[in-house]
Amino acid sequence: MKENKACIIPTMRYKNARTAIDWLCNAFGFEPHLVVDGENDTIAHAQLTYGNSMIMLGSEKEDEYGKLVTTPESMNGSNTQAPYVVVDEIDEHYQRAVAAGAKILVEIRDEAYGGRGYTCKDIEEYVWNFGSYNPWAEND
């Protein structure tokens, strides 16, 4: 059987994408893969990696895609989706996020289905889930 090489990459828009990139790297450990500057100190497109995973983001703007995707601030703090990121050293990751000012929504805890994790908001109110549970790993 042919292996499926597909992957899912969440995409987001931020009011201040440049500040968000710095914060996401500092707080959550993302690394810039590609950052394309836009007009008026905006970000046209950015790719941030975490291990073998990636998110894409850019500055909020009124373009074709901007009519489809907005920021939590534009929705009164609401979110319609929340990425889950598998983290090996979850307790250290949690401490890093707290130190950077992440708003903790669900404190770090052991989960009944395995692993350990927490839920937080970033500086622009996006909801993020981080945990050590990896559904792709074989159960011991």
Written description of the protein model:
By secondary structure, the protein is an alpha/beta fold. It has one domain (11-71, 80-131): Roll (2,3-Dihydroxybiphenyl 1,2-Dioxygenase, domain 1), CATH 3.10.180.10. The protein has two helices and eight strands. The chain has helices at 17-28, 90-99, and strands at 11-14, 31-37, 43-50, 53-59, 84-86, 103-110, 116-121, 127-131. Strands 1-4-3-2 form a four-stranded mixed beta sheet. Strand 6 (103-110) and strand 7 form a beta hairpin. The longest helix is centred in the N-terminal third of the chain and has 12 residues, at 17-28. The radius of gyration is 16 Å and the shape is globular. The model has no long low-confidence stretch (mean pLDDT 93).
Secondary-structure topology with pairs:
Blueprint: E1 11-14, H1 17-28, E2 31-37, E3 43-50, E4 53-59, E5 84-86, H2 90-99, E6 103-110, E7 116-121, E8 127-131
Parallel strand pairs: 1-4, 5-8
Antiparallel strand pairs: 2-3, 3-4, 6-7, 7-8
Number of domains: 1
User: What portion of the residues fall into strands of 2 or more residues?
Assistant: 25-35%
**Mind telling me the C-alpha Rg?**
16 Å
Which geometry do the CA atoms define?
A: globular
Largest sheet: 4 strands, mixed
CATH class assignment:
Alpha Beta
Helix fraction? Answer: 10-25%
List low-pLDDT spans.
Answer: none
- The CATH architecture designation is Roll
- Averaged pLDDT: 93
Question: What's the name of the CATH homologous superfamily?
Answer: 2,3-Dihydroxybiphenyl 1,2-Dioxygenase, domain 1
Number of helices: 2
Instruction: Please list the strands of the largest sheet in the order they lie side by side.
Output: 1-4-3-2
Terminal residue distance: 26 Å
Number of strands: 8
- Judged by helices, strands and strand pairing, the structural class is alpha/beta
Give me the strand/helix succession. EHEEEEHEEE
Under CATH, the topology can be stated as: 2,3-Dihydroxybiphenyl 1,2-Dioxygenase, domain 1
Q: Name the assembly state.
A: single chain
